[in-house]
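input
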Amino acid sequence: MQKEQGFALKCKDGVVRIAFADLEYVEVMNKTVFFHLAGGAVYEATAALADFEEEILARPEFVKTHRSYLVNLSCVQAVSVHCAVTKDGHNVPVSRQRRGEVKDAYLQFLHQTEIAAVSSGAENRAFEEKTVRPDGPWQILLVDDDSADRAFWAKVLQSHGCITHLAQNGREAVQLAKKEYCDCVLLDVMIPGEDGFAICEKLRMLTGAPVIFLSCLTETDKQLEGFASGGIDYITKDTPAELFWMKVKTRIKLAASDCVQRKYGPLLLDLTGRKALIDGKELPLTTLEFDILWRISEHAGRIFTPEEIFGMVWGEPSPEGAQTAQMHMSRLRRKLDTAQEGHCFIETVWGQGYRFVPPDR
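output
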């Protein structure tokens, strides 16, 4: 058996040799193992997954997604909550227990792939030059398949002196991110091919620029998915042009700022890493919880209503958003109180809202 090339399989068609590079995914059903090859061919053998699992998983490009499935990451186009979508359009189930492991493995595989892509001398020099910010106006990568929307937002950006690089889909966005410097990426969710959430994860491997979602999808679950995939903000397309610009400008300035940490007694906010630490120990905050803490800590002592908090973090003030803000605030306060007994960083002002109360320094 030649581990570097593939393995021999005794199946109904006789003995066949399967190359690791050609194996898309493995599926087990009723004591039969199906070997799905890129291009559509399928071989089957009467066996258990355990008979092949150890050998296949010894390859760095393979990962177990489910007790009955293995997948080749080089054949994967995207990883969603419930499945890995292959380039041939197959959905390979991902069990709840393995979701984090599979997603981390996929991101690591993409990262290694991108490093390999720039390993040659000329490409590596171009990559290094791209990471050094050139003099001049801000450069923004705008990804949107709608030509009218793309033209409108590009005009807004250009009216404020920005240079825009335009892409219609994820593939074009990745190519531009490889060769052009960007101060910010504005990314639509519904684009051809891989959606914006999957492309966001790839762009984060290529550029340190903040990724902001710009979408007509206003649902809370979509915005949460945007933050979970690595976006630093989520702007809906019904946002007024000037508010849109203020949000983009703030995010770019924050990303470029030398003031990337704020300290309030034992509490340290790392704005670059988007982490909160108390006495050096990181708090297990969600993206939204960190955003709430960061925003209200900028105005210590000021009372914020739940509606205002919702507006700062989710986009615009909303009476309906008050309950959502209160729920996240309750969880945030509980985590802070658990980490630092004896001090309440966030104080409830009954009938009014919440305020950040830094400890005496």
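quick obs: The first strand starts at residue 6 and ends at 11.
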